[in-house]
Specification:
Blueprint (H helix, E strand, L loop, with lengths): L1 H8 L2 H18 L10 H19 L3
Length: 61
Amino acid sequence: KDYKAAVRRFPPAQVEQIIHLLRTYDMKAKGVDFSGGPNADAELLRELMWHISERARRQPA
């Protein structure tokens, strides 16, 4: 039941973009192409959540 609702809410292209973001930010958290300061993890999490929410916001209802 939950899966069916998710499929209706999130088109495959949007899910693919979000998975790509998760992989990208996972690599950044591990130090690939990112050298953050003392609050690097919090900064990355804020950026990731912003990007995901922007994609969800642009999704037509």
